[in-house]
Amino acid sequence: MRKVLLTLALLSLTCFAFSQLAAGVPRHETFIANQLTGRVGTPGNFNLWAGWRWQDRGIQNLLLEPLWCVEYATGQIINALAAEPPIYNKNFTELTIKLRKGVYWSDGVPFTADDVVYTIELIKKTPGMSYNAQMQSVAEVKKIDDYTVVLKLTSPNSRFHAYLLDRWGALRILPKHVFEKVQDPMTFEFNPPVGTGPYVLKAYDPGGYWTLWELREDWQRTPTGMLYGKPAPKYVLIQTFGTAEQQVLAMARHELDAADLTMEGLRAVLQRVSTARAWRREFPWSVNIDPCVTGLHFNNAVEPFKNPEVRWALLLAIDIVEYAANAFDGAVTLSPIHIPLTSAYYNWYFTKMEEWLKNFELDIGGGQKFKPYDPTASLRLAEYARKRGYNVPTNPEEIKKIFGPGWYKYAPDVAEKLLIKNGFKRDPKTGKWLLPDGKPWTITILTTTNPAHPSYRNGFAVSQEWKKFGIDVTVMTTDALATLGQRGEFEITTDWPAAEPWGGHPDLYRVFDPYNSEYLVPIGENAPWGNYGRWTNPEMDKIIAKLRDTDWNDTEKIIQIGLEGLKLLVKEMPGIPTFNYPGVIAWDEYYWTNYPGAENMYCQPYHHWPNFKYMLPFLKPTGRK
């Protein structure tokens, strides 16, 4: 593998942008996408079961198949390695998984029940591996035949299959015949990687700037091939291009087919590249079906962020219109709750929470109460966009669909009262905030290195708000964001304020379960994604337990329990939700067409999601060379 890196190395010179592909890799047969999570910190390590491994470099979206996968654009659950939906017994203590027949690993070994059994047993017995804590609830896993697996659980859990259901994150099945020969699965690099997906590793940059994948000759023996047919590109190159300007230039030269851009970069591409388009063809252009809510993630294990009143004070120091303008020129959908306000979630949850939000109060001391919710926030955001010259409707209901229903008030005076109530004070000379111990209050925010990413945009937008409020704030960009976050080595990160829901189902188990006190670990140890901030609450434990005992198909009861959890998160505010993930994506149709745009929504639109492999069979080559 090491020498293949040299013999197949791509031309990547001063700015790490490609002027051409290596010999034998034709451009018109190659799909090139930018890497959302930036430069790979461990380029030779593909073992995503042993911690974060930059899985969007092609591991989750090209190499591996899950048992099941959520397709939020169509509201479907895809049976991938599984042949059918999960089967539970009446009291949810036993789960039967039927596997798809005829699937092969990329090295020619058949995929069978042995792989599933081995994966669960290995993960369960190996501390530090992803989903180790969750697999402790498996009392026994056994093979019935080559394509049937039965799991017996230690207690009823109607959502256990959620750990195996991919939607940017799942326990994916590993190859038994590879890992059983490994002495330490935590240090094993899984290089070259073996997968059940339609592509295999061709080459990668030792510096972590690109990864090249090639279509398997036996693509028919993968779930992607069986379900959707042959992927159109023979090669897929996933690359870190650097700055937004470099991405724009690469797309103008037709050296980049799909990119996550800044709003400024998107406008530049649409103006300069006649063959380029966005998800929507008009303002706000961005993807509005994304099942993620962005924002800020407090480390609830460290002072002063342990205190919910401090967290609320920081929220009330944010002018959300100014914040959204700085982040994405106002092209966002606000969400005051810890799930994205897509149409489905708006109807399932927000409409049932709106009156509660309007009446929700904070105790700011001295017998005073304050209602923080602002139902006019989206109207103010629409007015900003209108002043910028964008075509914005005037109907309040239409505005809600575009900009969201509302958010929280900009109330720095109330924020000040909350801080003073908790022992903070301002320096009489500088006006800046001092901690209760008298030391200057400084905050370091960790974020990604990718300027197009909402994580990055949230970090710099909030730093301006809090500096204006009188706090010294530093934003530190790092390729190690996920690693430092997982280990709790931060004050505030721009990881999502809560784990993402399914997108196509009202169940919020995926949002709440990371807060389970059973998973709480000290700083320095890997926490479950969605709770890097180490917040737990006995009431949330009860809510999680209720969901575990509720049938996946009982949506009415699921929604009622979900409302309980969302209200608790608003009260405690362990992380601040700001707006739906604004997917500022551009596609160049110079080499490939038939992307899943808003008018052709056959699949989710992102190249970094696990579903990307399911999009590729639908792309059509233009014939340009």
Characterization of the model:
With 625 residues, the chain is α+β, with helices and mostly antiparallel strands. It contains 20 helices and 27 strands. The strands form nine sheets. It has a five-stranded mixed β-sheet with strand order 22-21-23-14-24, with helices on one face. A four-stranded mixed β-sheet has the order 1-11-10-9, with no helix packed on it. A hairpin with a 2-residue loop joins strand 6 (138-145) and strand 7. Helix 7 packs parallel to helix 8, helix 9 (308-316) packs antiparallel against helix 14 (412-421) and helix 11 (343-359) packs across helix 19 (555-572). The longest helix is centred in the last third of the chain and has 18 residues, at 555-572. The chain is globular, with a radius of gyration of 24 Å. It starts with a helix and ends with a strand. The model is unreliable at 1-19 (pLDDT under 50).
Low-pLDDT sequence parts: 1-19
Coarse morphology: globular
**Gyration radius, in Å:** 24 Å
Would you tell me the structural class of the helices and strands? alpha+beta
Largest sheet: 5 strands, mixed
Average pLDDT figure: 93
* Share of helix, binned: 25-40%
Number of strands: 27
Estimate what percentage of residues fall within beta strands: 15-25%
Rounded to the nearest angstrom, the distance between the terminal CA atoms is: 30 Å
Number of helices: 20
Task: Trace the largest sheet across and list its strands.
Answer: 22-21-23-14-24
